[in-house]
Amino acid sequence: MPDEDQPAIVLDGVSARSGREFTLGPLDAAIPRGWTTAIVGTNGSGKSTLFRALLGLAPLAQGKLEVLGTQVRPGCDERYKEKIGFVSENGHGCENSMTAKEKAAFASAWYPAWDPPYYRRLVRQFDIDEKTKLGKLSKGMRRKAELAVAMAHRPDLLLLDEPTSGLDPMIWKIWLEELRTYLADGDKTLLIATHITEEVRRLADYVLFLHRGRILAHYEKDRLFDEWRELLVQGTGMMSEADAVRLLEETPGICRVERDGPGLYRAQANGAGQAGRLASRLDVYGFRTLESRRMELEDILSCMIQKEDKNLEPA
Question: What CATH code is assigned to 9-212?
Answer without folding.
Answer: 3.40.50.300
